[in-house]
Amino acid sequence: FIHHRPYFHKPIFSLSFRASSSFKLSSIRASSSSTPFFEPPKPSPSLLQTLTPLLKTTCITVTAIVETATRESMVSLEEQEKTLVQKLGKTPNDVETLRSLMEVRIKLKKLQQAIDVIERLIRLEPQDPEWPMLRAQIHSYAGNFELAKKEFEEILAKDPDRVEAFHGLVMAYSDSGQKLKELEKRIEGAMEKCKKEKKNKDFRDFKLLIAQIRVIEGRHSEALKVYEGLVKEEPKDFRPYLCMGIIYTLLKKKAEAEKQFEKFRKLVPKNHPYREYFVDNMIATRLFAEKAEREG
Hints:
Layout: H1 61-68, H2 74-90, H3 95-107, H4 111-124, H5 130-141, H6 145-158, H7 163-175, H8 181-196, H9 200-216, H10 220-233, H11 239-250, H12 254-267, H13 275-295
Helix pairs in contact: 1-3, 2-3, 3-4, 4-5, 5-6, 5-7, 6-7, 7-9, 8-9, 9-10, 10-11, 11-12, 11-13
């Protein structure tokens, strides 16, 4: 792979993470007081790429890890990588060290080398479902859409209702210019299954994913209706408010956007590992909207 997709060029809009997660990247630092640089996002069918956080936290990790690299010097990261490699020379099967090395290499945008580390983690922890998921997400992030789609499908073959895998497929389909109609039918089938089995959290996450598809399609009013329904069902869930705030910002409805962002700020836990990432992207969306208005 040669060409990487531009970093930090889209507002956060793949909102697809769950409020809690079992994902194990314990060394992620999302609480820095500094603010990362954001290149103004470009409105496009894939403007949602970094909204990944609102299903399960795994879905946001690649983008979030890369963005935290803006808070660290490349020299420091290179030194960390060297130290971790030396440590693995003595303890090659140390899972925690391998996780740290994977994270550092993602920050350094050494994506293939990060995938190599994930392959080692898969061999060491073959029953852990998160490593294949992250590998597929990195492939998608890097623009290897066909390989990413294959890997997401392999995950769904083992776990047909895995929301994060469907989310990954939506983003890979969208970014590769593929239509979402057939995929949406599969998502609706998984939703029906979740509803029958009373998997309420998964069902809610699928609704967030459907709303994301509506935004990808440019059907913002329909997306807003889905988010409004989610708010009525669970007013304390901060995710729909952030999504609606971003949509209203892009629609140049500043007052309504601020109203939604205020609700989001009040509800998002202060100790949430990606709180600052969400806030940063909220600010980035505002800056983009203001820039677009000035140049209008």
